[in-house]
Specification:
With 271 residues, this protein is mainly α. The protein folds into three domains: 8-90, MazG-like (Helix Hairpins); 139-217, Helix Hairpins (Orthogonal Bundle), CATH 1.10.287; 220-270, no CATH class. It has helices at 8-22, 30-34, 37-56, 63-83, 89-103, 105-108, 117-134, 150-163, 171-191, 194-214, 219-242, 253-270. The longest helix has 24 residues, at 219-242. The two termini are 33 Å apart. This is Nucleoside triphosphate pyrophosphohydrolase. Its EC number is 3.6.1.9. Keywords: Hydrolase. It comes from Paracoccus maritimus.
Length: 271
């Protein structure tokens, strides 16, 4: 429940002050003092994933805490930047506020809101192109962050290329390419070295991401769901064996396959 007695501005200010105290060279926390942008970046990514996890689980009671952990990462980076004389939290907040206003002229400007979703997307891309030009990003693929998860970055790179016409016409063409890349992977495994094998595997993964894009599937979400399904069914195998006082290492592949099929059938029956 929202607490109406809490003042958002005051709580943000308190958080900034706490972070400054933690980073104080004389009286702060030794661990916090030792950190830099590079050492904190993995925690920033981890906290973003934990926010997503809470949302996927619909754990609404956990979400405020997870969002707070993510906000801490912003405050941590801003404090380090402030100490270095680069920028501070207010600059971060101003930057995103200005960007939102600039990217929504149909809300904050004099443009009409009466346009289709497709037109909104085209307008959004035109505005972002202006922003990229201001950053001297001239190439089609400039500005796609290197630090993104590889699968997400693949989709973004492909979307950028598709906007200028560099794309397969449809999913069937991508499926043909998957067949080709699979054959090249087998050839690399049988005839070439580990470097070539890794390269061909990467090519296959890249094309699989493109198939997801053509099928309008979120590949990250699809893989997360596949992970969850694997976890459920393997845990069912463990539970079935545990009723006999056994563990998976006490079983064999044939038995575990049968238990897997039983778990799969039970899931189907429950749908």
């Amino acid at each position: 429940m929202t607490n109406p007695t809490r003042d958002p501005a005051a709580e943000i200010s308190r958080l900034i002050d706490i972070m400054a105290a933690l980073r104080d060279p004389s009286t702060g926390c030794p661990w916090d003092i030792e950190q830099d942008f590079a050492s904190i970046a993995p925690y920033t990514i981890e906290e973003a994933h934990e926010v997503e996890d809470a949302i996927q689980r619909r754990a609404w009671d956990e979400l405020p805490g997870e969002l707070g952990d993510l906000l801490l990462q912003v405050v941590f980076h801003a404090q380090m930047a402030r100490e270095a004389g680069m920028f501070d939290f207010a600059d971060c907040a101003a930057a995103i506020a200005d960007k939102l206003i600039f990217r929504h002229p149909h809300v904050f400007g004099d443009e009409s809101r009466d346009k289709s979703a497709e037109q909104q997307v085209r307008d959004w891309e035109a505005i972002k192109a202006v922003e990229r030009a201001g950053k001297a990003e001239r190439g089609t693929l400039d500005g796609v962050a290197l630090g993104l998860p590889a699968l997400t970055r693949a989709i973004k790179l492909q979307n950028r290329a598709a906007r200028v016409g560099f794309d397969w016409p449809g999913a069937d063409d991508v499926l043909d390419k998957i067949t080709e890349e699979t054959a090249e992977l087998v050839e690399a495994r049988d005839q070439l070295g580990p470097d070539a094998l890794e390269e061909e595997f990467g090519d296959l993964m890249f094309v699989m991401a493109n198939l997801a894009r053509h099928l309008k599937i979120d590949p990250e979400l699809a893989l997360r769901r596949a992970n969850a399904k694997f976890t459920r069914r393997f845990q069912a195998i463990e539970a079935a064996l545990a009723t006999e006082g056994r563990r998976p290492e006490d079983s064999d592949l044939a038995e575990m396959d049968r238990l897997w099929d039983r778990a799969k059938a039970a899931e189907k029956a429950a749908e």
